[in-house]
Amino acid sequence: MAEEKKEEQKPSISFIEQFISDDLKEGKNDGRIHTRFPPEPNGYLHIGHAKAICLDFGMAQKYGGKCNLRFDDTNPIKEDVEYVDSIKEDIHWLGFDWEEREYYASDYFGKLFDFAVDLIKRGLAYVDDQPADIISSQKGTPSQPGMESPFRSRPVKENLNLFFRMNEGEFEEGSRVLRAKVDMISPNMHMRDPIIYRIIKTPHHRTENKWMVYPMYDFAHGQSDYFEGITHSLCTLEFEVHRPLYDWFIDQLKTGDYRPRQIEFNRLNLTYTMMSKRKLLELVQEGKVNGWDDPRMPTLCGLRRRGYTPESIRRFVDLIGYTKVEAINDVSLLEHAIREDLNMRAPRVFGVLNPLKVIIRNYPEGQIEEVELINNPEDESQGKRMVPFSREVYIEQDDFMENPPNKFFRLAPGMEVRLKGAYIIKCEGFKKNEKTGAIEEVYCTYDPDTRSGGKTSEKKVKGTLHWVSAEHAVDAEVRLYDRLFNHEDPAGQKEDDYRKLLNPGSLKVLTGCKVEPSLAEAKPLDKFQFQRLGYFCVDYDSKHDKLIFNRTVGLKDTWAKVNK
RNA sequence: UGACCCAUGGUGUAAUUGGCAACACGUCAGAUUUUGGUUCUGAAGAGUCCAGGUUCGAAACCUGGUGGGUCAACCA
User: Fold this and answer.
1) Taking the CB of residue A52, how many other CB atoms lie within 10 A of it?
2) Coil, helix or strand at residue A320
3) Active site residue A277
């Protein structure tokens, strides 16, 4: 029949992918695509980097090209192998691989030095003896042109001599720099005779003491791309104004038609957190969080420890897209991505965070039944498990109210609920601490005919609770995480110290939680859904006799919403 | 007294390149449910920053505004 079939929504591609596929169609670079991910090894990767990684590796993958990993290690003062290792680990964890193409800007120090010498010889670079503040003031401002350095027309021979001696270690750090001779009155500040080499005597983590002069990032980055045959240099928006300078360098360097094409895209920003490496480092150093992998951190290692999967992060990145608009993405979209993933994968278990003892008075003392529970209703292949049931069980404190409001489908005096997978129980009474008002125990009876799966288990009740048999329960610590900052955009608040915006309640540690016995052997990073509560992940600190769970994210809770 | 970039529901993105503004998240209803989860159905919410212009037709092209961002490290 002529059924009007819905037009399959063609997945739209980003403007970057559009450029790439156009270039490919036009046969540029012999139809080759080669990208690179160029981190500086001076900190841990965060989810913002994940956005770049997914693009760099993703485009190469999709169009049959390659993606290099290149460490932009041009500043030995800030960089360290510790970071090199963590960066490699995080990229692999995310699901990408650079094969044997692990490069370093420091691999090109020789070539870069030769290029600098070449520029000097061609009268396109000179040694400036002035101190930093003078050079800086001569640069002018964005709205005022700069002034030429008195050393700008120094003879080639003298420049050469000085530059070599700079590298011999003959001069103090800061006493001289090498500058490219471009244009001091350019409206683009980056073109005003940028410094391209400076003296640094701190040993480099890879080249050690071989060099006394180091190229600036701007003098290393574009050329490194060129040396590696990169076709598409994808980077974030703030490098847009650097592009003319990179082009200028490549113009001096290139011998044929080939040149990398730089395309800029927007950074990833997330509500209630920040991506500034410097500020994240401060949070770590000042003990505001417990290390780079604190589950509240937006770092990849933090998210990993929190229980996020690489799939969920890739999915999230895919959802937010790449544009030139500076955007702030709602964390709820990230949370949606991890829920969506874990819903399919995480086995369901019973865990009681704030235990309240229920005594089933008509259940035989000493009797234990094993009840069968489905591990994951979304995935039959995950099978079933047996969970012990007995006369005394723990339920959640929130699941009992002495004076319940309307539509409270849980336990209250005279009300019936099902203990999931077991029986329907009815509340006959409770013990209350008269001083504190705390409910200490709840007394119930059960209906033996209502066992789940049994013939008469058709009986309907409004509420179903999770539970853990008191005698079989395993103790656990549970760490509940909330947003790190109270403000949606803590980094955007210019005046205020971002530390004042920290959420004091971002970590709550619960002890004495009760979880079902099947969890006793859970290993770090194992993920579960604590039924009716959320997704939880075993922490690295967890031990066989001291289980620790991190809450990745709560389940959607419409009851909490109406109850507000 | 500058240069460059940007502007589409609350948020993030689309709109096959000039042809009925769509999707996701979020929100709100309802159905299903032995998870107040999931799933399913539906709804509200922008007329595309503003003003002109080109065109039969503009979110898109042009001009001028407005608003936001980036650029003045011997950082990357």
Assistant:
1) 22
2) helix
3) yes
Residues 296-335 of chain A with CB under 7 A from strand B are: 319-330, 332-333, 335
User: Which residues of chain A (516-555) touch nucleic strand B at CB < 7 A?
Assistant: 529, 531-532, 555
Q: Which residues from 376-435 of A have any strand B atom under 7 Å from their CB?
A: 376-378, 407-410, 418, 420-421
Q: Which residues contact A222 (CB under 8 A, 6 or more apart)?
A: A233, A245, A246, A247, A249, A250, A260, A262
The span from the CA of A475 to the CA of A462, in Å, is: 29
Query: Domain spans of chain A?
Result: 15-107+217-265, 120-214, 277-347+477-563, 351-466
pLDDT at A453: 83
Residue range A351-466, CATH number: 2.40.240.10
A22 touches strand B (CB under 7 A): no
Q: Would you state the structure tokens that stand for residue A101, as one six-digit string?
A: 């193409």
What is the value of pTM for the model shown? 0.95
CA A198 to chain CA centroid, Å, is 34
Q: Give yes or no for CB of A218 within 7 Å of strand B.
A: yes
A340 phi and psi, to 5 degrees?
-60, -40
Q: Provide the H-helix boundaries in A329-475.
A: 331-345
CATH superfamily, domain at A120-214: Glutamyl-tRNA Synthetase; Domain 3 (3.90.800.10)
CA dihedral A433, A434, A436, A438 (to 10 degrees): 40
- Quick one: which of A264, A277, A274, A270 has its CA closest to A316? A270
Residue A267 annotated as catalytic? yes
Burial bucket for residue A267 (CB in 10 Å: 0-12, 13-18, 19+): middle
**pLDDT for A267:** 97
Q: Return the closest-CA partner of residue A200 out of A221, A177, A179.
A: A177
Mean pLDDT by 10 residues, chain A (564 residues): 41 92 94 97 97 98 97 96 96 98 98 98 98 96 95 98 98 98 96 98 97 98 98 97 97 95 97 95 95 98 98 98 96 98 98 98 97 97 97 97 94 96 97 95 96 77 96 98 95 81 96 97 97 98 95 95 78
Q: Which residues contact A96 (CB under 8 A, 6 or more apart)?
A: A53, A54, A57, A67
